[in-house]
Amino acid sequence: MRSTGFRSNQEPMEPKERLTPIQELSDLPSIDALADLPRGINWKFVFSDAVANERELIGAKWKHSLPDFSVAIHTSAPIIQCLKLITDDEVHAHQDFFEQCAKDYGQLAESLIKQLIDTHNIPFTPEFPLVGLNAYLQKAYPTTGKMQEWAFRIHGFHCAFTHQSTEQHIEVPLTFGEEFGVLDPYFFSNYILSSPQYAPLPVALFDPYGDGNRILEVMQVISKFEEVPSNVPGQTGIIVSDREKKEITISEEGLQAIIQQVVPKNGLLDFWRRFLGLWKK
């Protein structure tokens, strides 16, 4: 499971640990027993040397059979961890809450980007924000710094903002035109966890990426969230459906303009080209 990278305003949502040594394969629980695992328990299986070589095959089987679980196969230790992710029923029960969080996310994201642009007089390209707001281009404005109560950092395909008092954290996407409320599973969970106005949460989030991904999937199924195209050809994102919709231009030319303008410093040009090439696939 991924660390949030910052201190949350919520009480830590650490699952309880259940430890089971596996001396032989008969010690393993059935898939049904795993599926019945309550939320909030991280079931850790420690494999003995006698069966350690079976661990990856077992982990792969569990991942296939338990799509609503986080199944972590350790690479440096003979361990598999299983954690039940947020359920369909939980998302349905709290759909209004997650919808409001997504609306708030978009409003705050747009406000902060506009404030950043105004503060540093940044030339803005609304049809493809990454063309101008790019950490790897030579420019006359800082890519990290502070503006009033917020710290900011332009990086990759996002601009991160952290409130210096509350530590509320939001990552604003730069590849969906002026649709700044497009949600990444991990970033959306961390935004919710770091926002004081949502405390205490009505439902627990134990795995920022896994739970966030489940929320986005289920909210899309019930039409509270929807898919939108990216400026980058072949890519899409998920955003709250009830919003003022903005037109998004799919731009091969803008993508090439970014690549051509990257400052060839310390290997960044080759990295950027490879990164964009992989993302387009």
Quaternary structure annotation? single chain
Low-confidence stretches: 1-8
Strand order of the largest sheet: 1-2-4-3
Return the domain count. Answer: 2
Q: What is the 3D form? A: elongated
Strand content: 15-25%
Helix content: 25-40%
Radius of gyration: 21 Å
Tell me the span between the first and last alpha carbons: 26 Å
Instruction: State the secondary-structure class.
Output: alpha+beta
What brief labels describe this structure?
281 residues; alpha+beta; Translation Initiation Factor IF3; 2 domains; four-stranded mixed sheet; four-stranded antiparallel sheet; 8 helices; 10 strands; disordered N terminus
In short:
The protein has 281 residues and is of the alpha+beta class. The protein folds into 2 domains: 16-84, 2-Layer Sandwich (Translation Initiation Factor IF3), CATH 3.30.110; 90-280, no CATH class. It is 34% helix and 20% strand.
Q: Can you give a write-up of this model?
A:
With 281 residues, the protein is of the alpha+beta class. The chain has 2 domains: 16-84, Translation Initiation Factor IF3, CATH 3.30.110; 90-280, no CATH class. The chain is 34% helix and 20% strand. The protein contains 8 helices and 10 strands. Strand 9 and strand 10 form a beta hairpin. Helix 5 (185-194) packs across helix 6 (208-221). The longest helix has 26 residues, at 95-120. Mean pLDDT is 89; it is low at 1-8.
Topology, please?
Blueprint: E1 16-22, H1 31-35, E2 41-47, H2 55-65, E3 69-73, E4 79-84, H3 88-93, H4 95-120, E5 144-147, E6 150-155, E7 158-163, E8 169-173, H5 185-194, H6 208-221, E9 225-229, E10 236-240, H7 252-261, H8 268-280
Parallel strand pairs: 1-2
Antiparallel strand pairs: 2-4, 3-4, 5-6, 6-7, 7-8, 9-10
